[in-house]
Specification:
This protein has 258 residues and is an alpha/beta fold. The protein is built from 11 helices and 8 strands. The strands form 2 sheets. Strands 1-8-7-6 form a 4-stranded mixed sheet. A 4-stranded mixed sheet has the order 2-3-4-5. α2 packs across α3. It starts with a helix and ends with a helix.
Length: 258
């Protein structure tokens, strides 16, 4: 541009220098920015296929030079462990994508909920122990029949003497099967399995992984004193992702209430 400026002054005088600079700037923007980007946007597939092999050749040719430059620059590079892309930047990109119409509102909501999972603790999404549906382990099926049949849950916590002393989990269908066989003398404890206990401070994303790893749908939540304070189901975690999940049990409960 300096050379062009000197030639313009030599040929037309200094008064044309501003006009020449404006024309050169405009030409550079149009030729090197606007036209290639517009062409690439409309013919991206064709351009990508046509340029793939030349780019591969250039990468192969310049690889030794890039390697040498990397070795030279490594001592001067920052040792920072900060992420190259942060969670906040992704959220901003999602918001911009929604504004531009390339990201649906429900997609943005789901992604934001995924980010929220590692901030939620078990104690924030569990059902408090005082509000759970549970059976006393020593009761016979005859004594517990009404509670079993009326249970809105497929998995029921089992306690010994005190609701805070959860000793197991039983499947409603297993108990109903025994009732159908008129096996009323059997006790609830005969059909229980050992519960899995989790800490109240465990994060929701970790809990979801544990549900998958243990092939379980219900955990007992404990505080730092190992006292049972609530129960947490896989559905509780999934509802943090997808919102309220309604199943046949919810419909039955609503029918009973209404």
């Amino acid at each position: 541009s300096i050379f062009v400026g000197q030639r313009v002054i030599a040929l037309f005088g200094s008064r044309w220098l501003g006009i020449a600079s404006a024309l050169i700037t405009f030409s550079i923007i149009v030729i090197s920015e606007v036209i290639p980007k517009t062409f690439g946007e409309h013919y991206k597939t064709r351009v990508s296929l046509a340029s793939a092999k030349p780019l591969y050749v250039l990468i192969w040719v310049f690889r030794p030079l890039v390697g040498i430059l990397s070795l030279v620059m490594n001592p001067f590079r920052s040792k920072s462990n900060l992420p190259k892309v942060t969670e906040e930047e992704i959220k901003i990109m999602l918001k911009l994508g929604r504004s531009a119409g390339t990201v649906e509102t429900d997609e943005e909501t789901l992604c934001n909920r995924v980010f929220k999972l590692n901030d939620l603790k078990a104690s924030q999404i569990m059902k408090p122990i005082e509000n759970i549906y549970a059976l006393e382990k020593e009761k016979t099926l005859a004594e517990a029949k009404e509670a079993i049949v009326d249970s809105p849950y497929s998995r029921i916590a089992v306690y010994e003497k005190d609701i805070f002393n959860i000793t197991g989990i039983c499947q409603q269908r297993s108990l109903l099967r025994e009732i159908a066989k008129d096996n009323y003398t059997a006790s609830v404890k005969e059909f229980t399995s050992m519960p899995i206990f989790v800490d109240e401070n465990e994060k929701a994303d970790t809990l979801l992984e544990k549900f998958q790893a243990y092939h379980q749908h219900l955990f007992i939540v404990q505080n730092n004193k190992k006292k049972n304070i609530g129960i947490l189901t896989m559905e509780d975690v999934l509802e943090e992702l997808f919102g309220e999940i309604y199943d046949e049990k919810d419909a039955l409960n609503k029918k009973r209430e209404g």
